[in-house]
Amino acid sequence: MLELKPMLSALWRNKVPAMLIALQLALTLAIISNTAVIVKDRIAKIERPTGIAVEEIIAINVMAIPNNYDMIGAVSSDLELLRKLPFVQDATVTNQVPLSRSGSAGTFYNQPNQEIGGEVSNRYNTDPNFINTLGLKLVAGRNFTSAEMQYFDPSENRDINVAVITQQFADKIYPDQDPIGKPLYDGNTSHPIEIIGIVERHLGAWVDWPKAGNVAFFPIVRNTQDVNYLVRAEPGKRDEVLKTLVEKLSERDPQRVIRTRVLSEYVARSYAGDNLMVKVLSIVAATLSFIVALGIVGLTIFWINQRAKQIGVRRALGATRSNISRYFLIENSLIAATGIALGSAAALIANQYMVRDYSQPVLTLLPLTICALLVLVVSLAAALAPALRAANISPATATRSV
């Protein structure tokens, strides 16, 4: 404590460089603390469960060449072929590929003829094999039956009678109620669609959508010019199955253009922006920490060179090496504490604007504290080597150097 007064006096005499380092530390803390919550939010988003056996699924797009092609008839034959292939667990038909950033949505209500208060949901047209093919978990009710399937042209407008929905969508459309057996109304209509089953999770088409996880499935196949199949291979056999799919489908009917892609590629594309943001922000935080560490090293060395005579005198009067190194570490801690205090305030103020204007996650006390401790550790680590160097200055050398 007796050293504190001369430390403050020394810092006051060199207040400009000390304040510059404190401001640099403050800026670093403000940036990396807000960066940390953004990175944490993106990582949590990337790692959230999809509800789908992503690594086992192959997506196939089949586009017919003739304008009058019978796609409904082709779907039945194609699925029969696909399900008989070696190492194939199951196959299903769908109007859109999950997690592909392409799909359709609609507004649904729990009362007929409503115009407000509905819930928006991603919607899929599929068949009874979709649960097993995607690896979904049925948590309530039942799946579709073959008798409930409807096949019709796009121009036809038929009533849908049953639906399977995700648990998240069920909680939104019927909060605090059992939705099984209850009606679902597609837009401003009076025809009820009975909810017959609930699957635990399915993120849907758009991972960035605020309502990702609101999904409804309907037993429909439309006679369109193109169709999507999803094929689930046995674990570890996906690539082997992929090699034979196009060949077998082309052999069955050459009047189509067939394109395949594994579902994991769609997922990688959907999260490409989030992964890039995590990498860039991590590099920025590391670079800023390195730069501030270099500044602290340079300033500490500068001060040691300036005080070589004083260090020699203290050593001659009996100061130990630990006394000398501790002096510079404590002095550096005072600068760091000032920077951390300023940086904490700046971080919280900046975060308020980011939350309000850019919908970024809120900076809470825990990540701010962790980042503040990290900045303090970087500061002390940067000052440690110069402080140990100062402790090794001999009294005679220090005296002769001035």
TrEMBL record:
It is a multi-pass membrane protein. Keywords: Cell membrane, Membrane, Transmembrane, Transmembrane helix. Residues 283-395 form the ABC3 transporter permease C-terminal domain. It is found in: Cell membrane. Signal peptide: none annotated. The chain crosses the membrane at residues 280-305, 326-350, 362-385. InterPro entries: ABC3_permease_C, MacB_PCD, Macrolide_Exporter_MacB. The keyword Transmembrane applies. Residues 57-244 form the MacB-like periplasmic core domain. Pfam families: FtsX, MacB_PCD. Belongs to the ABC-4 integral membrane protein family. This is ABC transporter permease. It comes from Microbulbifer variabilis.
